Amino acid sequence: MDKPIEDMRLAQIGFLVNDIEKTKKEFARFFGVEEPETVNSGEFEITKTQYRGEPAPKAKCYMTFFYFGDLQMELIQPNEEPSIWKEHLEQFGEGIHHISFNVKGMQKTISACEDWGMELLQKGEYRRGNGRYAFMDALDSLKVVVELLERDE
Amino acid sequence: MDKPIEDMRLAQIGFLVNDIEKTKKEFARFFGVEEPETVNSGEFEITKTQYRGEPAPKAKCYMTFFYFGDLQMELIQPNEEPSIWKEHLEQFGEGIHHISFNVKGMQKTISACEDWGMELLQKGEYRRGNGRYAFMDALDSLKVVVELLERDE
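Above: the input entities. Below: the structure tokens describing the complete assembly.
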């Protein structure tokens, strides 16, 4: 089986946290930068969130982003509705949840990851409708969730 | 408090695993590369490992490294003797343990991290004696362990 992702440069590391405002302060202090804005994951009409194969209109999260070098660090605080964010946070606690790679052609990359042995956990469109993400379960093999990111040109 | 580390570009992501040979195979399959060599952490006479402030001559691990882009991915399988590797693996299970930064001046950077609010968990010299590492506890603040790496010129 060929590698499922073309560009293996790491695009993002994503953390799940219980209190994004508190942890955001600590990251800003660590990096020596201003606190970035916290945004929410957006409206279902745009995001079309699917959690374990089913529409999840109530699944939401708060997100904030730090940049250093070529790498993005994302903090995610889920809401109380079922989502892969909430599920993972409850099962494993706070900490690094995923590593992300930029892809071209989301559906074919999801299929390649499934052929490789990963399961699709959740997918959706960006809150501004300018791209999409998919979380693939690689916990057994790579000990981490792999996120695919596709930004529309 | 100023940021404790000068160069905030991520140098390494480190995983703790139970079976390095098995997980190494999966990483090589994912990245589409040959399996790298597994090495051990070296002899205490060189490494001078200190675990929570005490000499830990029996603390050892197996390590292997993957490179993609500017980033190193490290897999670590600890031996059965007490170490921060074994402690963390038992407490949190397999997965990402640390993110690493290159520093210049290990002792002053450890002190800066301590002033920032991190606790020194373990430190030692590289197995070839050409550098040193320190694991700083940032689990409360940043939800991850921060590793300092200093390679001698």
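Note for the figure: The longest strand of chain A covers residues 61-68.
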